[in-house]
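**User:** Once you have settled down, spend some time on the protein underneath, comparing sequence with structure tokens, and judge whether sequence predicts the tokens.
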Amino acid sequence: MTISQRLKEENIAEYLLYMWQQEDLVRAYGLDIDRIDEEYLSRFDLDDEQRKEMRAWYEGQIQMMREEGVEESGHLQVNQGVLMMLRDLHTSLLQSDKHPFYQSAYYKALPFIVELRSRSHTQMESEIENCFDAMYGLLLLRLQGKPVSQDTMVGMKAISDLLAQLAAFYKEEKEGTLEL
């Protein structure tokens, strides 16, 4: 089972962030499977079968990225579909009277979401996409070893808590146990 498969089953928010990272990784290697194999996959302790499976997975990602025209930027349709499902679930949870803790988490995150939207001029995106953009941005800052202010971390904590709850409700919905 690949990392993406495991994450998709366990935590859809982590899955989506991982998939965005993989899109950027593929771009960083110029959509060149041989470079990915030689320069990236070779770093891991993979047996021949695992390496063959990972190479095939990356080949599939490259093919989809080319077919969908997201070689330079943007996200694969499959990832956009996940984002749309999460956006729709978010809306349903906010409209339901059965999930006050989710609504509370949303209202705690809302000032930070509004601030993000005003700074990034992304009002056309959903609030949930803004949250994922922020989390991905934080991930990139951490990978680059750049400092993150305390105020930013407070906002990211609220956003992270909201996305964690959304991911848990998504899992319940997939299992057929979510009541709206």
Q: What stands out?
A: The chain has two domains: 3-68, 77-175. The mean pLDDT is 93.
